[in-house]
Structure formats: C-alpha cells, structure tokens
Amino acid sequence: MTAPVLAILDSDLKAPQPALYKARQVADSTKAPLHVLVNAYSSAMVRAVGVDHERQDAARAQIHKAWQNRISELTDRERCQLSILWHKDSMAALRESILDLQPAMVVVHTSEESGLRRHLFTPRDWQLIRKAPCPVLCVHGRQWPHAPRVLAALDPGTEEQPQDALAVNVLGAANHFAGNLGGTLRATHVLDEMDDSLILLVGEAIPDYSGGMEKVRQFYRDRFQAFGAAHGLGPDQMTVLTGPVAPTLAKYCDEHDMDVLVVGTVHRNLPERLLLGATAESVITRASTDVLVIKPQGFQSPWQA
C-alpha cells in the first residue's frame, strides 16, 4: 500500500486548517492516501469536568464527535483516514503516530507569529524537522496558486564529492513536487559570507587553491552551475545568492513570491555550506513561504533508536 500523506491539524476546533488543505493537494497530486490526525486533548475540559470518570468520558465523546463533524466539513471523509487522539503529552502521541503510520510526508501548520514569539511557538516543528523519519512540509495560511513556484536550496558539493547525495535528493523532491502540482522550479545556492580567517579553511577543499575570497565564490558558483546543468536545469532556473544562508533564502523567497522552499537537513563542516537542520528551522521562522524539509538518504530517526 502507498504510504499516506499525514496532515497534522491545529488543535483549535474552529481553525481554518491550512495543513489539511495542502496535504490534500499533495495527496491528490501523487495519488497517495490522506491521513488526518488531531490531538483533541483539552486541559481546560479536564479541569472543568474534574475527576468524575463518567463525566470525563461523556465530554471526550462530545469533543470526538465535534472533531468528526469539523473534518467532514473540511474534506470528504471517504477520501481520508482519521485519527483523533486524546493525549496530554502531545509530542509523544505525535511521535508514536508517525512511527506507526510511516507516512510519505508530514504536513503541519507552522506558527504565523513573528519575531521572538515565532521562535517560542515552534518546538513541535523543530522536533519534526530533526527527528521525523520522512519529509516534513511546514505550511502557512496562504493558499498555493494554480502553478506554485518552488525553489530548491542546493549544496552541490566539492570536486572530491561531485554529486552531493542530499542535493540530489532535494532537487529530485523539488522537481517531483513542482511537477505533480503543475508548478515551476528554480534552484539556488547560497554563498555565506566568511571572515578572512576562514578562507584558508575553505581553501583546503578547493583544488589548486591560491587564496582569495573571490576564488572561493567562483569555485562554488561553477560547482552549482555544473551540478544544475547535469540534472537538467537551465541557466535561467539557477541563482547564486550571497549572505547568511537563512535570512538570504527567506528574503529571496519573499521578494520573488515563492510558494515552497525545499531544503535539506544535514550538517556541513565548511562554514559557507550550512544548509542543515538549524538553517531549515531558521528559514521557517523567517520566511512567509512554505518550507519542505528533506532528510538525507539512509536517515535514521532518533525516534527509532
């Protein structure tokens, strides 16, 4: 059986649930099953009802029915499987559900807050990015257009590693995503600005390195262009950016009205090659675009340890 696309709903019964709408679009475009999950646990209800088990059961049944009705309003129940959980520890319940379902993708509505409040309100997203055993799509409330604009953030590797496996996975996922949804695809590589003291460290990875920041930049521009061309990208689909990775990606996405940014989650050793988990998290807290996070081949989830 095809692995499902899992939509994790906001716990507010009246919320518009953008994760559900976008998960349904992804599932429909790939002909995958759709699974909808919500943790209906209400601490306010538990406090109001008290320790009377009969009253607790009646209240839980009422909340369960309300969620069934709400999801029926939002989507065709016959087209999806539904899990309505009741767990005080929402992250533990989510972890167990994901490991049990083994979804092809998790879709979650990330925080719409700004600034520091946004960082404080996304611990669930960080857990999913770092630990879920599958791609994670963090979405905002804005709907996708008929032809969504997809941007793949790539790290094409060095001459010693001419085809970076994660970059291949990220580009493949972005191409697949854009193609299934009838969208357009662009790719970018971000050259992070480096202090002069780091140039010699970076230079060790460059054949015949003779020093100079511009040579470092040109080396990675050439690598990116060669990588993109080898994987079917035209020159007009590739952009090299310069600056701190997360804010630079976020700014580019906002200025060019991108709908989905696709990034990878593997730590890099060189300071200018930081498309890693922390960067994915930083982009999510900065950009207004949706972010699809791709795990490396053979990724072992800490949840499965």
- The total domain count is 2
**Number of DSSP strand runs:** 10
Average residue-wise pLDDT: 83
* H and E string: EHEHHEHEHHEEHEHHEHEHE
CATH topology of the largest domain: Rossmann fold
The CATH first-level class of the largest domain comes to: Alpha Beta
The CATH architecture of the largest domain would be 3-Layer(aba) Sandwich
Largest sheet: 10 strands, mixed
Helix/strand class: alpha/beta
Q: Compute the CA-based radius of gyration.
A: 21 Å
- The dominant shape is elongated
Low-pLDDT regions: 195-204, 267-277
Main location: cytoplasm
Family: Belongs to the universal stress protein A family.
Function: Required for resistance to DNA-damaging agents.
Pfam families: Usp
Structure description:
This is Universal stress protein. This protein has helices spanning 18-30, 43-49, 53-74, 90-101, 115-120, 123-131, 165-180, 199-203, 213-230, 245-255, 277-286; strands at residues 5-8, 34-39, 80-85, 105-109, 136-139, 149-153, 184-191, 238-242, 260-264, 290-294. Helix content is 42%, strand content 17%. The protein has 11 helices and 10 strands. The model is unreliable at 195-204 and 267-277 (pLDDT under 50). The protein folds into 2 domains: 5-109, 3-Layer(aba) Sandwich (Rossmann fold), CATH 3.40.50.620; 149-304, 3-Layer(aba) Sandwich (Rossmann fold), CATH 3.40.50. Helix 10 packs across helix 11. The chain is of the alpha/beta class and 305 residues long.
